[in-house]
Specification:
Strand content of chain A: 15-25%
Number of domains of chain B: 2
Number of strands of chain A: 9
Structural class of chain A: alpha/beta
Radius of gyration of chain B: 32 Å
CATH architecture of the largest domain in chain B: Orthogonal Bundle
Radius of gyration of chain A: 19 Å
Number of helices of chain A: 10
Shape of chain A: globular
Helix content of chain B: over 70%
Strand content of chain B: under 5%
Shape of chain B: elongated
Largest sheet of chain A: 6 strands, mixed
Largest sheet of chain B: 2 strands, antiparallel
Oligomer: heterodimer
Number of helices of chain B: 16
Distance between the termini of chain A: 32 Å
CATH superfamily of the largest domain in chain B: ABC transporter involved in vitamin B12 uptake, BtuC
Number of strands of chain B: 4
CATH class of the largest domain in chain B: Mainly Alpha
CATH topology of the largest domain in chain B: ABC transporter involved in vitamin B12 uptake, BtuC
Largest interface: A-B, 32 and 27 residues
Distance between the termini of chain B: 76 Å
Chain lengths: 266, 430
């Protein structure tokens, strides 16, 4: 199952997440080409690919964090702005400064920030929700700790708790298992599986192909374009993996450069 | 000015300060508070350099506003200066994004250019504008009380009024947008994804910075206002671990700097602006010395405590090894500091002019030796090291193995009870 027209099911109404011919460029240079796929039902969905394949870019483009050069993203057939409160995003752990002066509780309470307007500071319910989320990831005892004092796995779980505090329907996570010890990985994964069982969609960028096979229900193999996507067993074939990991597609690189230079390929 | 003689008491010295100095101090306090409030988010967002840029680049805006007829210290000046600050920020982004200049260099290019333009404007327009280059650069705090406006029969210094207005503005703004400020400062991408208007939040902060800067001009001038923006916040960040605590602490540090700096400057007859910045610098040094976790003193103490613990543990272990090899008593000079400490703590006792382990000391010593030999065994199994290279790493790691880890190593090693040198690994007494 390869190529862009590889949706696992026949087109039905309002898939939970839909990338329609999505192309992303940094500056003028396209780095992710024509991703076209939809995720119909709640599942644990992995985005897998080599370094620099555009996995994180795919998530960021879905959330309007980077400019799209073309194509659209729809959640339940709607634009991001209309359904934002139902979507939670967990960025890569390295993107924030962990020496920042905030407590664990402060970070988790950020999950509810967007629901609050200008003047509202959040009340008892919000605090309880934040505490419950912390408890869920097993860090209730760390609420008052400064975030820099936590281990990598604990920091990642704080991020997860912040997403849980959003009470969202779709969770987009960027490398939630990176730099995380084996124990925390298991714990994070079981929480994600729990969310899936509650009927939520969990999309996670992941780099480790071995654990991906056992964790995810469905997978998208990405290397500057969507190589294949669908149920894990069908997608993880030797041919697909070779196509994803066998090195750059010289043509896409060359055309990208030509677009950047506004020239022609040789 | 009244000279301060040695026999003057503090109270009468305060009396002698009088209302004029009172106004100057009050203005300095309000201005410092403004700068600390907006400076703290700026510093934790690692945007201090941009704050420096803004504080310089508001100058041309200020001059143009005055040329267009705005009262110095009035609203028109605030607007003009803020506009200039926004131009700087935009110009910096432009150089960075479009002209391919490094971010720090683009800040350097944009603000020096605008500041220089401002200096030129001041000197060219000389007679037409009531702005003295010296005042703009170094502040005119001492002259603040003489430029007053009549407010319901009270003579209030104009600079104090406008600074208070700015304080009201920035504290309200910060209070209303606090959650957004915090989220954006910590994790801009997630904030944006969650629907926080991060661009507006950042621009709002920078507008606050330029307002505080304009207020700060009066007190300390364009060159030193960056000290009031950055230093209190940097000091507070070392001392507390939550952003709103940092803001409050920064305000307190700034206020101490303002009052202390002014009084000291007056005492020694020198520049108030310079002295305030120096006091802030001293406060920062104190902060890095006494910071609870990573302060110089705290680090030194924890290092000394560690070194002392290592000394004691090594000594205890040497007693144990002596016993193991058959010497009932450890032949040693009695009276070293470590020995005395161990005796006071009941780890060793004197027996016929020699020291021997007490039962408690023996248990503790055994733990050290056990850690040492467990680690040697573990290393021998997992790392390709010659047997005679195993001792030094174990000598170090023995001080760091807790009970949990010892248990894990023990489980992994199975019933191995002899270390690679052939010594018996003592059993743990639980």
């Amino acid at each position: 199952m390869t190529g862009n027209n590889s949706a696992p099911e026949v087109h039905a109404d309002n898939p939970m997440l839909e990338w329609h011919d999505l192309t992303v460029a940094y500056g003028r240079r396209p780095v992710l080409w024509n991703v076209d796929f939809e995720i119909q039902d709640p599942c644990l969905f992995g985005i897998i690919g080599p370094n620099g394949a555009g996995k994180s870019t795919l998530l960021k483009a879905s959330l309007d964090l980077v400019q799209r050069a073309g194509g659209t993203v729809r959640f339940w057939g709607q634009r991001l702005a209309e359904v934002r409160s139902k979507i939670a995003y967990v960025p890569q752990r390295e993107t924030v400064d962990w020496d920042f002066p905030v407590s664990v509780m402060d970070v988790v309470r950020m999950g509810a920030t967007s629901r609050l307007g200008w003047f509202r500071r959040g009340g008892k319910r919000e605090r309880e929700l934040a505490l419950a989320s912390l408890d869920h990831v097993g860090l209730a005892d760390f609420a008052k700790r400064q975030i820099g004092k936590l281990s990598g796995g604990q920091q990642q779980r704080v991020f997860l708790a912040r997403a849980l505090a959003r009470e969202a329907e779709i969770y987009l996570l960027d490398e939630p298992m990176a730099g995380v010890d084996a124990g925390s990985q298991e714990q994070i994964f079981s929480i994600l599986a729990e969310l899936r069982d509650q009927g939520k969609l969990v999309v996670a960028v992941h780099h480790d192909i071995r654990t991906a096979a056992q964790w995810f229900d469905a997978i998208a193999l990405v290397d500057m374009r969507l190589v294949a996507a669908g149920p894990t067993a069908e997608v993880l074939t030797p041919e697909n993996l070779t196509m994803t990991y066998s090195g750059r597609l010289g043509i896409l690189d060359e055309i990208g450069e030509a677009v950047e230079r506004r020239g022609r390929t040789s | 000015m009244i000279a301060l003689t040695a026999d003057t008491t503090f109270m009468s010295w305060l009396d002698s300060i009088g209302p004029l100095h009172g106004w100057a101090i009050a203005t300095a306090v309000v201005v410092s508070a403004c700068c600390a409030i907006v400076g703290t988010p700026l510093v934790v967002r690692r945007m201090s350099l941009l704050g420096d840029a803004i504080s310089h680049a508001v100058l041309p805006g200020l001059v143009v506003a005055v040329l267009l007829g705005a009262q110095p210290g009035g609203i028109g000046v605030l607007v003009g200066a803020t506009a200039a600050a926004m131009v700087t920020v935009w110009f910096t982004r432009f150089l960075y994004r479009q002209a391919g200049l490094w971010e720090d260099a683009s800040v350097g290019v944009s603000f020096t250019t605008l500041f220089a333009a401002g200096v030129l404007l001041v000197t060219i327009s000389g007679s037409r504008v009531d702005l003295d280059p010296g005042c703009v650069l170094y502040g005119i705090l001492e002259l603040v009380p003489f430029d007053t406006v009549d407010l319901y029969g009270w003579d209030i210094p104009r600079a104090f009024l406008s600074a208070s207005f700015v304080l009201l503005l920035v504290s309200c703004g910060m209070w209303c947008t606090w959650r957004w400020q915090l989220f954006t400062a910590f994790d801009c991408d997630a904030a944006k994804a969650a629907g926080v208007p991060t661009v507006a939040v950042t621009v709002g902060l920078l507008v606050g910075v330029s307002l505080a800067t304009v207020a700060g001009f009066v007190a300390v001038g364009a060159i030193l206002v960056v000290a009031m923006l950055v230093v209190p916040a940097a000091a507070a960040e070392r001392l507390v671990h939550r952003l709103h605590h940092a803001v409050w602490l920064a305000v307190m540090i700034a206020v101490v700097g303002a009052i202390g700096g002014y009084l000291l400057a007056w005492r020694f007859g020198t520049s108030a602006a310079g002295m305030m910045a120096v006091v802030l610098g001293v406060e920062y040094v104190i902060a890095i010395l006494v910071a609870p976790d990573d302060g110089v003193v705290a680090r030194l103490v924890s290092k000394l405590v560690y070194l002392w613990r290592v000394q004691c543990e090594d000594r205890l272990a040497s007693f144990w090894r002596a016993e193991e090899s058959g010497y009932a008593r450890h032949e040693s000079t009695v009276g070293g500091l470590v020995d005395r400490w161990l005796r006071v703590n009941g780890q060793v006792q004197k027996q016929e002019n020699a020291l021997v382990l007490t039962p408690q000391g023996r248990v503790n010593a055994e733990v050290i030796v056990r850690s040492h030999r467990l680690w040697e065994t573990w290393l021998g199994r997992h790392v390709d090291l010659p047997v005679d290279h195993l001792h030094p790493p174990a000598e170090w790691i023995e001080h760091h193995l807790g009970e949990q880890v010892r248990k894990r190593i023990e489980n992994e090693l199975g019933n191995e009870d002899v270390d690679p040198h052939g010594s018996v690994i003592p059993r743990e007494k639980r």
